[in-house]
Design a protein that fits this description.
About 45% of the residues lie in helices and about 15% in strands. By secondary structure, the chain is an alpha/beta fold. It has an 8-stranded mixed β-sheet with strand order 3-2-4-1-5-6-7-8, sandwiched between helices.
Length: about 230
């Protein structure tokens, strides 16, 4: 059994691969965009990553949100921006995207929150697609799709398929602390061939986030599987 598990473990690591994460911009500012369904923790994830760049790496950061549907979401990100003492702006249109990027041109990174919505809402998906296209035209841009590890696999597949129509992206899985079933991380990687960049395991800012570790996750998946078999 140990020999079999060792072989499976090695194959898991190879299948997971390695994500590039956030790549420094050749020409700043670098836009880092976060998209995904409602309730997966996008805003908190942005705050965690932004705070690390501000506090630990001493980078100049700005925050923007295109989520004009939920007042609470914009206010939450505004609070984080105030705590970090970084500029913040709410964006309503493609023209405002370009203006904000110009105004924040001295920043190293602009972290952008997008509206969370159902993957079945074609209108909002199209709106998100247009806004991200405007950012990509205005400068260097990276996009991350934020998913919850607690979401059912069938739903994850549908969500991933819809968001793949918007732009190329990497994955961030949240709420690992709320489930012991981590096999979906590997399932989605195999189904979409999209790299996993970060995982989060709690609400604490700036903690409870780390770069995705294939070795660690592979061990946790096999340990959980082995315990259920026993």
């Amino acid at each position: 059994m140990d020999y079999i598990l060792a072989g499976v473990y090695q194959k898991m690591i190879l299948k997971f691969g390695k994500a590039e994460g956030i790549v420094p911009a050749e020409k700043k500012p670098k836009m880092v965009v976060f998209m995904g369904p409602t309730g997966v923790g996008k805003t908190t994830t942005i705050a965690k990553i932004a705070s690390k760049y501000v506090v630990e790496e001493n980078k100049k950061v700005a925050m923007m949100t295109t989520d004009t549907y939920r007042i609470a979401a914009a206010e939450q990100l505004r609070i984080y921006a105030n705590i970090l003492e970084v500029p913040f702006r709410v964006i309503y249109s493609e023209e405002e995207v370009k203006a904000a990027i110009y105004d924040f041109r001295d920043c190293d990174y602009i972290f952008v929150d997008t509206a969370g919505h159902s993957h079945q809402n074609e209108g909002q998906l199209e709106h998100t697609k247009q806004l991200i296209a405007a950012m990509e035209q205005a400068g260097e841009c990276q996009t991350f799709l934020v998913l919850s590890a607690t979401t059912k696999y069938r739903d994850l597949l549908k969500i991933a398929a819809k968001y793949s129509e918007i732009t190329n992206h990497q994955l961030i899985f949240t709420k690992l602390d709320e489930t012991s079933m981590l096999g979906n991380l590997l399932n989605i990687k195999l189904a979409t061939d999209t790299p996993i960049a970060f995982v989060t395991c709690g609400q604490n800012v700036p903690n409870d986030i780390e770069q995705f570790n294939p070795q660690k996750t592979g061990k946790e998946i096999l340990t959980s599987k082995y315990e259920r078999m026993s």
